[in-house]
């Protein structure tokens, strides 16, 4: 696949040093009372105090374009789910909105304004989104004309149309692919690094909500359901536990805040188990997650672990008894305490005598020889019916294949 390549003049226009006017135009183009990011400063703060804070903001922008990166502390983002329908019942009915820091928006808007002029050159004519001068109804007209042709064609020759659902395809692009595309069209060096820093190093906050907050959220839901206000108290006719049951069990399917919080945090734990290659995953693994996936609680013994990691570990509780390991090289899976044998669960439950400290820490790889099961060793510690089940487990790939959670 080949991509259009920018001319030297276009590349030079992108790399032009930024000016004070660029920064001022960027900050004043942001709505004053737009929802702020984690730092809590809306754009109106900078509008009202421009003469006081402009030097710091301008120097920040200069530094980002000079170094080709955005500081991590301004690239933090809050996620707010906005309902897409009047009565949302699942997560697909919400649109996640990113609430970015205003300082981050200044950098990204300068980049956007420079790239916007070049989009018609880079984006194919059949793509109408994000390109000035193109509108979505353009493709509607084309589709109508094509179908009109289908309807009126005569003779034995027919046509067929394929409707391809590309919903949120942009969420499934790998960072490496985007970086290569930028290089292919001629955006390299510091500018390439700056763009990748803006889009790939975003930090989302994952925290375990305190029980008090979860209770307050549930209280708000209960009051809304029964019509209770500060001036008018109503009787709650049904227990909250009953209300929160699924609809097929007689409840209303309302989610308890504590359970929803844990489920959302469990998604972060699952991404870690699937070896997410993002910076956040590499950082957390390097700092806390030095053992296997099921060792997340060992790191909690360290009192200095962050609220983010505590949140991820709290969510991972939902996964511990619900995931199964696929055996690769066996170096990560704990032989006795991980769930890797179908229908049996943890092998520790199937032995009558207590395990020694050495046995507790044994890995599946300790029972493999040349990528094959060590029959003699297995028979020395387990009954034959369990050994028979273990022998039915296919060892995935070569000896270099890593264990994985499924």
UniProtKB/TrEMBL annotation:
Domain named Reverse transcriptase is located at: 83-201
InterPro entries, sorted: DNA/RNA_pol_sf (IPR043502), RT_dom (IPR000477)
Any one Pfam family here would be RVT_1
The protein here is known as Reverse transcriptase domain-containing protein
Q: Give the species.
A: Acer saccharum (Sugar maple)
């Amino acid at each position: 696949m080949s991509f259009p390549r920018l001319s030297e003049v276009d590349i030079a226009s992108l790399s032009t040093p930024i000016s004070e006017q660029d920064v001022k135009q960027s900050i004043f183009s942001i709505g004053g009372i737009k929802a702020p990011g984690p730092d809590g400063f809306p754009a109106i703060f900078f509008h009202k105090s421009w003469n006081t804070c402009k030097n710091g903001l301008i120097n920040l922008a200069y530094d980002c374009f000079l170094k080709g990166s955005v500081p991590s502390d301004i690239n933090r983002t809050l996620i707010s789910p906005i309902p897409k329908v009047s009565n949302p019942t699942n997560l697909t009915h919400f649109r996640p909105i990113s609430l970015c820091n205003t300082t981050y928006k200044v950098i990204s808007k300068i980049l956007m304004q420079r790239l916007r002029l070049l989009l018609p050159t880079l984006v194919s004519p059949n793509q109408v989104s994000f390109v000035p001068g193109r509108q979505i109804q353009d493709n509607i007209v084309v589709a109508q004309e094509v179908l009109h042709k289908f309807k009126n064609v005569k003779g034995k020759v027919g046509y067929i149309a394929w409707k391809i659902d590309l919903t949120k395809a942009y969420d499934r692009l790998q960072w490496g692919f985007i970086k290569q595309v930028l290089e292919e069209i001629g955006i390299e060096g510091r500018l390439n690094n700056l763009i990748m820093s803006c889009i790939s190093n975003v930090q989302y906050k994952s925290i375990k909500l305190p029980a008090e907050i979860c209770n307050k959220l549930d209280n708000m839901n209960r009051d809304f359901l029964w019509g209770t206000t500060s001036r008018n108290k109503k009787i709650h006719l049904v227990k909250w536990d009953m209300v929160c049951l699924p609809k097929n069990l007689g409840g209303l399917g309302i989610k308890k805040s504590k359970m929803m919080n844990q489920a959302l945090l469990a998604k972060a734990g699952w991404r870690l188990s699937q070896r997410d290659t993002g910076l956040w995953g590499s950082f957390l693994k390097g700092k806390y997650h030095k053992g296997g996936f099921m060792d997340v609680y060992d790191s909690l013994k360290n009192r200095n672990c962050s609220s983010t990691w505590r949140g991820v570990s709290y969510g991972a509780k939902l996964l511990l008894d619900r995931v199964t390991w696929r055996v690769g090289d066996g170096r990560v899976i704990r032989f006795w305490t991980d769930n890797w044998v179908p229908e049996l669960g943890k092998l520790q439950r199937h032995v009558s005598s207590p395990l020694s400290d050495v046995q507790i820490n044994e890995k599946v790889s300790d029972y493999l020889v040349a990528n094959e099961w060590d029959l003699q060793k297995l028979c020395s510690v387990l009954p034959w019916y369990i050994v028979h089940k273990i022998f039915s487990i296919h060892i995935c790939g070569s000896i270099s294949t890593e264990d994985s959670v499924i």
